[in-house]
Design a protein that fits this description.
Strand order of the largest sheet: 5-2-3-4-16-15-14-9
Oligomer: single chain
Distance between the termini: 59 Å
Number of strands: 25
Number of helices: 8
Helix content: 10-25%
């Protein structure tokens, strides 16, 4: 028995994204489950592992010379699809040749290159995920508006470990933020009226962006559980596990005022401070100073016989003070661990002040 699956251009893009998000470091999950409902002419592709798994459903698949009520689950190496999809043009056709034993081979009749794959053992995790899909019913949100407010919160609150986005009808949008173990709240200055509480980290935000950018519907559904977030659009479901954030949700916020935020050249900052470490008398002091003056950042250090100062050019700066000087431990910068690189060498940093007037410098 032969089955031909026809995938249009939009679904091809979604399938590429589904397969690319799978964890290639886990050989057992470098596979894709192709679930066929021949009677209903529906095919489902499932890929990933427990902490990040997704499904793409294609309806009205092209069936050639088949009259059957069979439902089949076949597993193949996912890399073969990733190899042929970019070369398929506007449409990809997959030919499955099924034998009586339940095995199958997969070829691609409309591409120039020869590719053939043979079915493998189906992963239990993929079958379990398939069985739960019918139970998923998600509240719908405007995709562009939701992505916009999430990106706004992400950019405004960096760096962070978690953010809890709160958007209630008739109220403004706000976020509860955990940064360096401290928890505080910030207003976003927007009013989305989503009636939504969504706990996010960088992994879930990256997944949400990927789903929104690679689906073509205007709406997206969201379901939250204790250990995962499920994003659902028409024909597409992506589940991403989240770390245990119950402690974060229960913590009382500490009021902090953001004094300044800026983007700078991370390598230049590290190099300038690294030079100070090699000056013995400066190194012994273990202290240096950061001076924020008129939108410029100046790194300073001194000992009894030496004084040093270097200007670190800021790429972007937002500050509610014109002058601020902070004493910092020089050795903290020697092994600078960057939490939030915007792109290439750009590092986002912020200075906040607690109600006790204690200042915090975060990257």
């Amino acid at each position: 028995m032969n089955v031909t699956i026809s995938i249009n251009a939009n679904k091809s893009i979604e399938l590429i994204h589904l397969l690319e998000q799978a964890d290639k470091r886990s050989p057992e999950y470098c596979k894709v489950l192709i679930s066929l409902d021949i009677k209903e002419e529906v095919v489902s592709f499932i890929a990933g592992r427990a902490d990040l798994m997704g499904c793409l459903v294609i309806e009205d698949m092209l069936i050639k010379k088949v009259k059957s009520e069979q439902k089949l689950n076949l597993s193949f190496d996912a890399d073969i699809l990733l190899d042929v999809l970019p070369n398929a043009g506007c449409e990809l056709q997959i030919l499955l040749k099924l034998d009586t034993s339940g095995s199958a081979e997969m070829t691609f009749p409309k591409i120039l290159n020869y590719r053939r794959a043979f079915s493998e053992t189906v992963q239990d995790a993929h079958l379990e995920y398939l069985s739960t899909l019918k139970m998923i019913d998600a509240p719908q949100y405007n995709k562009a508006s939701l992505l916009g407010i999430v990106q706004h919160a992400d950019e405004k609150c960096r760096p962070y470990e978690y953010i809890l986005l709160k958007s209630e009808k008739g109220e403004g949008d706000s976020v509860k933020v955990q940064r360096d173990g401290d928890v505080f709240t910030e207003n976003l200055g927007t009013k989305s009226n989503f009636d939504l509480n969504l706990c996010l980290d960088k992994k879930t935000i990256k997944t949400l962006k990927g789903v929104c950018e690679n689906t073509f519907e205007d709406k997206i559904g969201i379901i939250t559980t204790n250990d995962s977030i499920i994003f659902k659009s028409k024909g597409r479901i992506t589940s991403v596990s989240v770390p245990d954030h119950s402690e974060f949700l229960l913590r009382v916020t500490v009021k902090k005022e953001k004094v300044a935020s800026f983007i700078l050249d991370a390598y230049k900052l590290r190099n300038e401070l690294g030079r100070y470490v090699h000056l013995h008398s400066i190194k012994q002091q273990e202290q240096s100073y950061l001076l924020l003056n008129q939108g410029n950042l100046v790194v300073c250090a001194k000992s009894e016989k030496l004084e040093c100062a270097d200007i670190v050019k800021l790429i972007e700066v937002s500050s509610n003070t014109t002058d601020l000087i902070l004493m910092v431990n020089l050795h903290l910068f020697k092994e600078l661990k960057v939490k939030d690189m915007t792109e290439f060498h750009k590092l986002k940093a912020s200075i906040t002040k607690s109600i006790e007037r204690e200042y915090f410098f975060s990257f």
